[in-house]
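User: Predict structure, ligand protoporphyrin IX containing FE.
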Amino acid sequence: MNKHFLVFDMAMFLLFAAILASFLCSLYFFHRRTRCINPLLRDYFILGMLPPVLFNLWRIHDFITEILKLRGGTGEFKGPWFTKMNYLITCDSLNVQHMLCKTKNLFGERLGLCSNEDGGCCYSEEVLFQSVGRSCSNSNTFHCSSHEERIAHKTWRLWVLQRTVVHRNELFCHLCSLNVQHTLCKNFDNYVKGHDFRDIFEPFGDGFVTADYETWKYIRTLLHSLMKQPRLKAFVDQTVQKKILTSLLPILDHAQQLGRVVDLQDVLLRFTFDNIFLTTVGHDPKCLSIDFPVVAVGKAFRVSEKSIFYRHTVPKTVWKFQRWLQIGQEKKMTEACRTIDEFIYSFIESKREELGKCTEDEMNEAPSDLLTALMTEHGGREHDDKFVRDFAFNFLVAGRGSMASALTWFFWLLIKHPIVEAKILEEIRDNFKANEKKNDDCGHGFDEEYHNLHDQEQYLKVSGKVLGMEEVKKLVYLHAALCESLRLFPPLPIQRKQAVKADTLPSGHRVNANTMIMLSFYAMGRCEEIWGKDCLEFKPERWISEKGEIVNVASYKFIAFNAGPRTCLGKESSLLQMKMLTAAMFWKYRFQVVEGHVVSPSRSFGLSMKNGLKVRIMKRELCQSYNSRKSKQRKKKGDKNIYKVAAAILRKYCFKVVEGHVATPTHSIVLLMKNGLKARIMKRDV
Ligand code: HEM
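Assistant: Predicted complex:
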């Protein structure tokens, strides 16, 4: 009898516990749902919004772009329960400007009152006041005293009501009090990398990637002064030219002669790796060699990047526990960091030794890599080894993957768009013509020299090795094509920020202190509001003004290099380097993606290609006819004749292109039609 009672009691207790647990779960579920005002996805029981993300992980950036478009550019993601994997995700350019820049023009621009400038400081109360018919003599505050101002207020209010999803009143109150300066400025300081970011990006130490506040300001100022040194710029220019000529072109030549399939992404990664190492520590790890060696430190960098991505996909407690036990990806991370540290510290030691023996004058003439420049600053005594290690590590990562990734996507787009490729070649050729003219003027007879060589590589060598940084500055169309590629495929597709204090974004979304925010740079590059209806098309022309100059797009819209005070410091240099590389490679070779090769983004923090970019390499046919002075003269005479002949033919005949005939351009320097132009000829009646 007692036993029966015990079983009954147990059953009742379990039933009660189950009811209580399900009640608490429902309560929590309900609470989560009510707190999530702008969900991006359906919030599942316990799993949160994770299931659809896992389902679409293979196309995660496109998936985020699609859902952000559906939700008006901003929304909340809630991870599984109690994992703290909650984010506000946005691709709204005004939100991005609000967070990244010391911005002032948030509202004015939407009202069409401000011009579209970069990085803050273009909001002008003056413009606002003038637009309502009163010129502004002072002031940051805005009182509703006159009729015109009340009209302006009304416009603001209308816009705010249209735009704001939540907290309308609060935002409107901000505007009503209109202490504009206070509300809209200095947001940059409110959105930091934060301690969670530093935890995940632990191998970066206290470098510029993870630093905030004063530490970041100090490193940024230091980096800025080092990177703008003419010595370093000249060193980078020479290093890239030499590396292209002595490693890259011979390796491509070798692969072309053997008819080998080459993974262009791998080649570019190796190139940028050697290049950034040379720039940073003055040593060439020779990753880009004919036998494609496995270089331990290169592998270690790849592993550490993979591990950082892994830390983004699991709750903090899980990877921390794994790290404590030293198992799985965390074990690999520890080993990789050890390899990298040994490598960097050995350089620091040998550099300190070398520099210790140098006199002041010799120090000034020492090779101009970044580490030497840093260590010779104030006699090099200011920074300890840990500081130099973090500095070097951050710089190596910042300059390595991003350029290789940008170039891989760019080359793939060029292969897919032969007309753009042909235009780039045409521009390079025109640039050579400019060289030719310059040489003619000096009386060097360079033109003749070229025609004796009959070989492009020789031509490149004679005309100043490969094109240098100064020369590629002239290539406007190539610049436009690169920007267009970076818009569609930003090497860093996501940026992470953490709010320090509560705030309201221009989109009206409320941000609490410590809210994690993801800025989707990838989605921003494909945003119709910024780029128009044809935002998914690869159109370099959108970057070129009627005057033939590059259109200046605000960096909080063209976001690949980040915006505001944390804008990429390597932007200008990396664009020039990429132009040098593209000019050298595409001038000499054409590339064909291997049949059946699938191009898709990898699951990593940077936007690389999952399967690489497998191509066959072919030598480009040389077209000389344009370059000779004689042919130029012939061409001038010919031009007049051509019009006469064309007019005579068209007067007599009309032409109809054969049905199904495909008109595609050739892969040669001159834009011809690959399949010719097949047409039926009819006599004109008149
Ligand atoms: C296509 C090439 C590149 C792209 C798309 C790119 C993009 C970016 C982005 C998005 C950031 C912001 C990162 C963050 O705050 O989390 C950044 C920062 C930075 N980049 Fe680049 N980068 C490129 C190449 C380079 C190169 C070659 C160098 C150096 C030689 C470089 C040096 C830096 C530095 C020093 C920062 C830190 C700025 C700061 O936090 O104050 N970048 N870059």
